Amino acid sequence: MGLLERLRKEWFILGIVLVIAVARLEPGVGVKGGPLKPEITITYIAVSAIFFNSGLSLKTEELTSALMHVKLHLFVQIFTLVFFPTAIWVFLQLLSITPINEWLLKGLQTVGCMPPPVSSAVILTKAVGGNEGIVITPLLLLLFLGSSSSVPFTSIFSQLFMTVVVPLIIGQIVRRYIKDWLERKKPPFGAISSCVLLMIIYTTFCDTFANPNIDLDKFSLIIVVFIIFSVQMSFMFLTFLFSTRNNSTFTPADTVAIVFCSTHKSLTLGPVGCREVAKVV
Asked: Measured between alpha carbons, how far is 208 from 16 in angstroms, rounded to an integer?
């Protein structure tokens, strides 16, 4: 495989590196309140576009079948909301005796309690041919961190409904009228969603680099990056083993969905959770 062909195949990974680099050079463009207005364009328009795209590309019978796949949903929810945060808690008990920054460890536990991401999990699952198929998070934070957490459930659920459910339904309705055209032209749905995800990554890192209060020692930061990478790879491998064992009824497409959705954590509630961790009582 030639270099150009390899670069074309790995364009999404290269895109991630590029948008992070651009965000580092000029974070003011993509911060909240900046020229791109990510609080509107990303929070509502970009996420809605991803799920409208999914609704447009998904065959209705496949969507119905995915909704009825109870075993897969239970596996994902139990792994990500029970096993994941518990395993992280046990691991962090060992790390608490090290010189790693205490708040970075609390941040790891907070992210470990987050639900699966709705946008990136769908995009990554779809990109490799997988099956596309809140309340617990504050309780987990209270259990593992002993912190009081206050999450605006009404606004979160209404936002998720308007940016996830409604666009998905609209996409399905539009698909009924242009189904023949879609099957004939085969638009690059995966590439479109991946480009939108790059926008989300860009604005997220703009906020990170624009924060003047970030003051962490390099040792802790490097170690935590290594820990995150190790945990991510280990859990992906673990879910792969579970979903492909001999007595498993999961299909290869289900395995793809499980590996991505069970091991990824959402940025949707991340900032809320991190703020609440500071309210330790």
From this structure: 15
Q: What CA–CA distance (Å, rounded) separates 156 from 137?
A: 13
What's the rounded Cα separation, in Å, for the pair 208 and 226?
Answer: 19
Residue-wise pLDDT for 69-92, tens only, equals 778 778 888 888 888 889 988 988
The string of pLDDT tens digits covering residues 174-198 is 999 998 898 888 888 878 888 888 8
103-117, 144-158, 214-228, range with the lowest pLDDT: 144-158
State how far the Cα of 108 lies from the Cα of 114, in Å rounded to an integer. 10
Q: Which residues contact 279 (CB under 8 A, 6 or more apart)?
A: 147, 148, 149
Q: Is 147 helix (H, G, I), strand (E, B) or coil?
A: strand
The candidate with the shortest Cα–Cα distance to 257, out of 240, 232, 237, is 240
Instruction: Please give the Cα distance from 57 to 51 (Å, whole number).
Output: 10
- Strand, helix or coil at 148? coil
- Which two tokens mark 71? 């075993």
Give the Cα separation of 263 and 179 in Å (integer). Answer: 34
